[in-house]
Amino acid sequence: MTLNFVHTICPYCGTGCGIDLIVKDGKIAGVEPVKFHPVNEGKLCIKGRYCFEFVHSEDRLKKPLIKKNGEFHETSWNAVLSVIVKRIKEYGDEIGFLASAKCTNEENYVLQKFARVSGTNNVDHCARLCHAPTVVGLGEAFGSGAMTNSIEDLEESKCILIIGSNTFEQHPLIARRILKAKEKDAKIIVIDPRKTHTAKFADVFLQIYPGTNVAVLNGIMNVILREKLYDEEFVEKRTRGFEEFAGPIEKYTPEFVSKICGVEPELIEKAARIYAESEKSAIVYCMGVTQFSHGSDSVKACCNLALLTGNVGRPGTGVNPLRGQNNVQGACDMGALPNVFPGYQKVTDEKARKKFEEAWSCELSGEAGLTVTEMIDEAGKSIKFLYIMGENPVISDPDVSHVEKCLRKLDFLVVQDIFLSDTAKFADVVLPACCWAEKDGTFTNTERRVQLIRKAVEPPGEALPDWKIVSMIAKELGLSGFDYSCAEDVFNEIRTVMPQYAGITYRRLGLRGIQWPCPAEDHPGTQILHTEKFATPDGLGRFTAVEFRESAEKPDDEYPFILTTGRIVFHYHTGTMTRRSEHLAGEVNECFVEMNPEDARRLGVGQGDCVKVKSRRGEIFARVRLGDIKRGVVFIPFHFAESPANRLTLCALDERSKIPELKVCTVKIENLKVEQKWQ
After folding, report:
1. Do the bridges between strand 665-671 and strand 3-9 make them parallel or antiparallel, or are there none, so unpaired?
2. CATH for the stretch 132-321
3. Which CATH architecture fits 65-129+326-450+460-515?
4. Around Cβ 52, how many Cβ atoms within 10 Å?
5. In 3-state terms, what secondary structure has residue 550?
6. Residue-range domain boundaries for the chain
7. Cβ contacts of residue 14 below 8 Å, gap of 6+?
8. Closest CA to 567 of 172, 2, 144, 108
9. Diameter over CA atoms, the chain
10. Using alpha carbons only, how large is the chain's radius of gyration in Å?
11. pLDDT digits over 245-271, tens only?
């Protein structure tokens, strides 16, 4: 018997916890948290504890598959590469690529490079569905679309305002830092439609209606301005646009906002005073801020609040978006977006474009490409060929029925994944990839910490690392610049084109990682951004006046409930990994709809009853779960493919970031009366 411990990073949320995989006779037998890791300090949540259980699943993809007469058949790599290359040559720029926040930095870099060298900027990934407004909003206000402070830094806060984040379920090890701050007498403010596990720890809880974040934040700032609680010196010396911002705030009195949000004016005033008067106040947010048709405005409102009170650039302060998947930050950094090259260098910028043309020895398009939702909409029209790496849009994207119809219109679909996902079932070709435990590379967590992952076991069958598969296709097409021998070769190229990563090397990363920006090899990395000046052209933070706008759908007599969606502690994203974990699936393994008890009584349903939830786009079945949620609002987790919450959601987009409004749509609930199972 051989026993090895392989240090790596948890593959689930964006926290980036350090773990040791216990490998016995070539199989992963367990996991242990790394005691001295800077993020998790020897602790793990339940997902991290069982993160290895899907790795050796019997239904892992082992060989390339090609569809003939509606059925998949195993084939060789040579044969499948020949088919893919032939079809790529047929379509020119009528092709799109979806990268993945589950894949490494190196793999996302290689895929977006392949797309661009092939002649298109049609490359995007699931950040479009979660934190695209963060890139837009934080980028415009501060000059950088990333978490300003460190996870550890939250312990130093005297006030933590958590809005649109159920941190205790979605990011438990970050919640641990929040609890440690509370033990030091920090005040916790939570803004959410549900009284979540996070809200139960709040000193002030504002239970708002979904989609009213801008109104409640403007109401808080109205109090701060009226009572002159803002930091006049910080505003004068380090910001611009204050006068234009302050004027529209005048009408957002607590009384006015109360009618929009359904929160008592006194609670708005109390929250405002605590946040403004605390020595160090931090804002923490997640997709309950971003996933709206006005998501970019909500992020800008968070930035306005931090600028107004001088809570940026110091320990225990900042605006801190929490990334949902393990490498959302890294995939964005790598340029897996249609409008920017790696390092957020705009494709429309001639200087940036020439830089990458020289680095990659090719001509590049200066026109921004299509986003995820736009590529889906254009399937069969301007997009004939779609290449999907590690994404599952049939479950994760809004209006699932629409997504399915669009995928059927494609001439050719390639899906590269570790399982035959719901999306892969639509593919013409399926390519078997390695999971995170079977390859080397890097992830970048929510606090900008670049960390090494290390190969622990061999992949099943003929599965290969994603970067290698893409490189093989590129070379078959005759493209130069894809002769990488290992993941480190890719990373060394990344360093040459991305100033934020220039000083980072595999050798330097060690067990703790390094937070970007790290401009040189003698630089320690950056824990806190914007300490002296912002990353804007003039170094000043920018106020932006944002007005409350209603969501695309409002309740009516036919569809009287507001549906909001999200995650639960036991599962991750579309469930392809966690639902193959015996321990996690054993906790919760079917869809539920959380309802206010009064709403349930009015409909004649109770705990555990089966109901039909229907929107204008589709319907699903779910079990009733009674909870402390705003009346007229229901919550459904989106992990369950047999009852996908996104069959109900709509495609209304934020005009700036193009994110869909996944957090608000209207539904009706039908009591099925008779016990009913669903497939």
Report:
1. unpaired
2. 3.40.228.10
3. 3-Layer(aba) Sandwich (3.40)
4. 25
5. coil
6. 65-129+326-450+460-515, 132-321, 561-671
7. 171, 322, 323, 324, 325, 326, 327, 328, 329, 445, 446
8. 172
9. 72
10. 24
11. 999 999 999 999 999 999 999 999 999
Query: For residues 90 and 331, what is the distance between their CA atoms, to the nearest angstrom?
Result: 28
How do residues 294-342 score in pLDDT, each as one tens digit?
A: 999 999 999 999 999 999 999 999 999 998 889 999 999 999 999 999 9
Distance CA 487, CA 506 (A): 10
Tokens of 375: 């590529």
434, 418 in Cβ contact below 8 A? Answer: yes
3-state secondary structure of 671: strand
Number of Cα atoms under 13 Å in the Cβ half of residue 395 = 22
What topology does CATH give the domain 561-671? Answer: Barwin-like endoglucanases (2.40.40)
Apex 369 CA angle, 365 and 370, nearest 5: 165
**DSSP letter for each residue of 190-226:** EE-SB--TTGGG-SEEE-PPTT-HHHHHHHHHHHHHH
CB 581 within 8 A of CB 326: no
Helix (H, G, I), strand (E, B) or coil at 455: coil
HSE-CB of 457 using CA atoms within 13 angstroms: 23
Scanning the structure block, which residue is given the tokens 């589709």? 618
Q: Indicate the burial class of 475 (C-beta count within 10 angstroms; 0-12, 13-18, 19 or more).
A: middle
The answer to whether 450 and 442 are in contact (CB under 8 A) is yes
Q: Is the pLDDT of residue 237 over 80?
A: yes
Question: Is the four-CA dihedral 330, 334, 339, 345 of positive or negative sign?
Answer: positive
Cα 639 off chain centre by: 14
Cα separations in angstroms, 613 against 280, 393, 603, 647, 660: 44, 21, 12, 10, 20
d(CA 140, CA 142): 6
For residue 380, which phi and psi values (nearest 5 degrees)?
Answer: 85, -10
Question: Over 70: is that where the pLDDT of 676 sits?
Answer: no
* pLDDT reported for residue 673: 67
Please write the tens of the pLDDT for every residue from 586-623: 998 999 999 999 999 999 999 999 999 999 999 999 99
